[in-house]
Amino acid sequence: MPELPEIEALAHHLREHALYRPVARVDVASMSAVKTFDPPVSAVVGRVVTGASRYGKFLAVEFLDRPDDPLHLITHLSRAGWLRWHDSASATPPKPGRGPLELRVHLDTVGGPGFDLTEAGTQKRLSVYLVHDPQEVPGIARLGPDALALTRDEFAAVLTGRSERLKTLLVEQQAIAGIGNAYSDEILHTAKLSPYAASGRLRPEQIDELYAAMRSVLTDAVERSVGQGAAQLKGEKRSGLRVHARTGMPCPVCGETVREVSFANKSFQYCPGCQTGGKPLADRRLSRLVR
């Protein structure tokens, strides 16, 4: 799933390539992906791209060329969605339900440059909204503070009184916006904290370590990602991961074998040597959790 660094890089890519270009046509290949109907997505035709922004893990393309009628084309890429930039595209409208294409935006001229929103797999969860104000998107309206905007004291306040495990809290978008499964694994590994540590029971020095880890992991990932082409971002993300999706491989810090805990439709990875005092966390599929 694209997270804060990748969405930030995609927004930067759009600012580099799409800015000040008019929309020539929008092709909707999947009506189920479009979650709003007023205004219709065709309302952006003739409008000029004036910016691109990130709200947590939401990506917004801005059309502020008419101050009395601002528009924001917003997408949440979910687990398998992506934005693909093209210098040219077929002028023939796509057939609905064929292939991974969900929505195509032609800029300058039909068949010219622009971008596609695509989604792999059979579970179609990518969402597209066209709104006058980003706060009209329910997911954005519910977002907590952005992970990179929090001060240390604000971060501590988010943790105070919370009973959730750290892994759960870090990916809860209403608590902290922008972090997903992969970077939460990396943050906890860097901070040397168990995924199952109680959020509200950390000592002050552990809060310091977790905050510093969040800042460093995300900032480093943004710096590595921004400037990369959209096609290279997935590979760049994988290359920077130390524990996530590395089950069975040696931890690059201590050499211990990276382990995994699996749930019904997701999993996370951690290093027992760095994070749990050498104790493995039992897989929930097999037995009760070991703290």
Automatic annotation (TrEMBL):
It holds the Pfam family H2TH. The keyword GTP-binding does not apply. It catalyses: Hydrolysis of DNA containing ring-opened 7-methylguanine residues, releasing 2,6-diamino-4-hydroxy-5-(N-methyl)formamidopyrimidine. Residues 2-126 form the Formamidopyrimidine-DNA glycosylase catalytic domain. Its cofactor is Zn(2+). Keywords: DNA damage, DNA repair, DNA-binding, Glycosidase, Hydrolase, Lyase, Metal-binding, Multifunctional enzyme, Zinc, Zinc-finger. Residues 242-276 form the FPG-type domain. InterPro entries: FPG_cat, FPG_N, H2TH_FPG, Ribosomal_uS13-like_H2TH, Znf_DNA_glyclase/AP_lyase, Znf_FPG/IleRS. The keyword Cell cycle does not apply. It comes from the Bacteria. Signal peptide: none annotated. Belongs to the FPG family. This is Fpg/Nei family DNA glycosylase. It comes from Pseudonocardia xinjiangensis.
